[in-house]
Amino acid sequence: MKKKYVSNTRLFLFIKFWMIALGLSCMVIFPGNRSFAQPSQILFNIPAQKIRTALTAFAHQADISLIYSQEDIAPVKTNPVFGIYDPVQALGILLEGTGLAFQKTGKESIAIMKHHANVQSRSVFRQSSAHEKDGFPPRNIPAEGDVPLPGKILLVDHRKDYVLEDILVTATRIGETRLQKTPLTLSYFDDESIAENGTESLRDIDLVTPNMTFIKQPKAISFYMRGVGSYSPWSGGTEAIGITVNDVYTPKDKAAMVSLMDVEHIEVLRGPQGTLFGRNTSAGMIRIMTHMPTQSFSGYLISEYGTLNKFGFEGALSGPMVQDKLKGRLAFKKSFRDGFFENKGPDTPETVDDENLTGARTMIQLTPSQTCDFLVSGEYQRFENHGGTPWSFENPEPFVAAGALPWKPLESLATAPIDGGERHQTINKMLSLTSKFELAQGIYLKSITGYFDGKTISKAVDETGTSLLLYDAKLLETDVKSFTQEFQFNARWGKWDLLAGFFFLHEKDASVLDIGLTYDTILEYLQSYGTCGDSYAFYLSGTYPLTQSLSMTLGARYSLDKRDHFINTEMAQNHGTKEAPVYLPWIPTAYYTETGAKTWSDVSPKLGLEYTLTDNAFLYGSITKGYKAGGWNMLLALSPTYQFDPEYVWSYEVGAKTDWLGNRLRANLALFYYNYNDMQISTYGPSPERGSLKVTTRNASSTKIYGGELELSGHPVRELTLGVTVAATFGKYTSLAGTDLEGNAVDQSGNKLMATPEWSFSSFASYVMPVKKYGYVTFSSTWNWQGEYPSDPLNAEKYWIKPRSIFNARVRFETLTGHWFLDAYGRNLTDKRYATLIHNWSPLGLIATPDNPMWVLASDGRIFGVQMGYRF
Question: Which of 355, 341, 405, 427 is nearest to 385 (CA)?
């Protein structure tokens, strides 16, 4: 009854939400004091969107023809048009700030062209008094017959207009550049593709990003890119893949846990990025850019209902607060669902691996003049669940003999008999101030100030995954606070395009653990540990044109890391048995205290060449050094900790970005070779002296990695968009000393890279079908396949993650105006269950043989749902 009641309640909330939204939208669209439109006036409903689709909607609503050159239409977004206007007024609002002008060429046709400076200097613009009458500020509307048409004009038949849209990125940090002319290997996802791919959080991004995998854990998510990443949330080290939100650095792995809320686009950069970003980008960078405040009132509401009692809503409101000076934006999101796995343990939640997300972000942008701009942002996100799902390949006999409930193999996961009440909570709070100044013509200064406060709390954790209380982590808490300040200077000096920057980070993280082991002996650990440090970085990058087609990029970064750490560990031996423990006053039988400090520094250069072969072919190559600071192994330390050193990488990369068949086919290729020294590798391993596992990060003295990515996309016909990616990564630890499953020293040189499949593929398809005068239906699907890879550098047979395929699909109906849309989706349609992480617990004596790994974290299962949205 409980599940049925919860399901009905959430369905009622979904219906009630949209009844209210429908009523409010009708009040906005059809206010009682507004008269019907005059014959020359039209009710326009065009939300902010990509310019090509906006022009299509405008042409349909105004019932006119638009004439423009394909080359003139840049990949920008338009302003929303909402209200009753004549077509000229509406088009003026739509195109304001896009760099486009227009002119009526007849009663039923309008020509659109670039807004050239010489046109404006001739004062061919006139003010429209109609805007003042409707309460809008005056806008520049071109007078009929004044604007010259470009030399090559196309009458656009939208049934035949199916070229690939150009994409603008900001990854070079010197302003917007075309993706096809940017000498970086990156994947770009805008808000539309994020929705079509079903990307809800960063942990979904690997399904559509070449050479990227993730390791799922209840309290953390770790990414690997081209064979390089950070594995352990307990390590006293730093990250290899940087994550920024609106260019504000987010430390540790906390940002990966939360949802993607009100995101405008995501850029995933592969390879070292030290000369462009200040810290922790030796493997790559994930840049999340959210929607900015708008000068016109706009926003959206989305509600969702799905299987597993999934219910959620998301929305945003944006608009002016003081016309042309102050504007703001508020975004919010709430989402929750039950878990994928039934829990048969006594007195426990009915399911595990559930989710509950709450988030909000507010932004205020002040533009006092044309030469300065200030953006203040505050964000709060909370993520809660009842654990990932530990699993085993087979029934460990000691568990069954001790009375554990039976379970099924990984291949047919149906139940997860976990004992009681495991809970995880991650709370992130972020504040930032971004200031931009134009010091002189072509000279810009940007300041980015950020504060991050992240906390992860885990309670009642039994990582054995059984119905017996064998491993009782009463409390695991990690608190991370950081302050960042970055200054960025852009200028053109002669022929040089220069970027210079300074980055400062002050970061503190502290952890508290209370862990009990109750299988063979009654042990309990109390530990607190943490790090504190300052990081400084100076970076410089400049591009110089050697010829009209060939350019050279030179760059360097100086890094200085100062860090210290502390450890306090106590262990107590109680009495009794696991069935009847006798708890005495806390008397430590072992304890350990340690403090220490270390300073590291590095200079990382970069040399790049870019060559424009033709207008549709761009070649680039680079030699770049990457660096990541060292740290300490501190989890449950009872003896002097093992310090691991910084890692260094020399990256050699070449690439080609090409467009074919009149911009209907796009093919981008990148090849890379990495030479790592002292590569940091984090693994779980046995610790017989503690009777538990330990997390160890150590250095592999030498590692070689090579591979590549091929990304294809095209428009075979206007209604159909196709995309394919092929990725390959090959590598091995050429020199690595480690331990086997019994804790014995072993040479692991020659072993393959952990968490890195040698081959992976993905594909995307989208088909748009017009529905007469009502709108469009879009069918989209994604497929991702990853080959097998080891979960640990040891490469033991049962530590390999098997190959897997994931299918997602979505059907969307969108009204012609773009206001309303309705989605039906399915994720992981074949209900493929696979391991994302495998551990071994043989040192506890829980498993008969040390090569039978017991601790396995399973992936998400299948889910269906519907979404309904309204944009204005």
Answer: 355
